[in-house]
Amino acid sequence: MFINKYLLIFAFKQIKMKTKTENILMVLKVLALLAGIGFSIQCGSQILSLVAGFINSDWSKHVYDVNQDLFSIREHNTWYYVYAMSLIIAVSALNALIWYLVFHLLLKLRLTTPFSIEVEKKLERISYLLFAVWCISIIGKGYIRWLSKSTGIHLSGISIGDEYLFIAGIIYIISQVFKRGIEIQEENQLTV
């Protein structure tokens, strides 16, 4: 009890000594990690649902975060179901990967020297992955639309985001700003 009290006081003083930006970055690290874990769980449950659907279709209906409209597609044609689930799983897996990259980016980010090649490369990689999610989302929307027309089953509950292209563009622009900041930083080091 005595040691815990002093540890809490020390931790509180450390938090107080940090700047507001450092505290915000600490909270963002935790949120990015939680988002990565959440999307990993979502992806895993979707994979489990796909596999369980072949073992026993009743099991897959009760797995977390799976659209019920897809089960009617599975009864119509198994391959249509597999393709639709594959696209949904790909989006979830890429989302999990993006959030883990954001977490690692925040770990590597140093406020004393924010412009580093490692940070710029991670930002660029995140923008490419966001663009890939957008591409898969567009393919998925087209496939779901085609699937609804060809099977006559209304698939209203499946939503795939359009915002990924916009976010990818913003992150790519930020990565280019970081790249230019690195160039200016290197030029200043050479002139000194």
Please describe what this structure looks like.
This protein has helices at 2-17, 20-55, 57-61, 69-76, 78-108, 117-151, 164-191. It contains 7 helices and no strands. The longest helix has 36 residues, at 20-55. Helix content is 83%, strand content 0%.
What's the SSE blueprint?
Layout: H1 2-17, H2 20-55, H3 57-61, H4 69-76, H5 78-108, H6 117-151, H7 164-191
- Helix/sheet category: mainly alpha
Number of strands: 0
Helix percentage range = over 70%
Shape, principal axes of CA atoms: elongated
State the end-to-end CA separation.
54 Å
Q: Compute the average pLDDT.
A: 79
Strand content: under 5%
Which stretches are poorly predicted, pLDDT < 50 over at least 5 residues?
none
Query: How is the biggest beta sheet arranged?
Result: none
What Rg, in angstroms, do the CA atoms define? 22 Å
Number of helices: 7
The H/E string reads HHHHHHH
Task: State the gist of this model.
The protein is an all-alpha fold and 192 residues long. It has 7 helices and no strands. Helix content is 83%, strand content 0%.
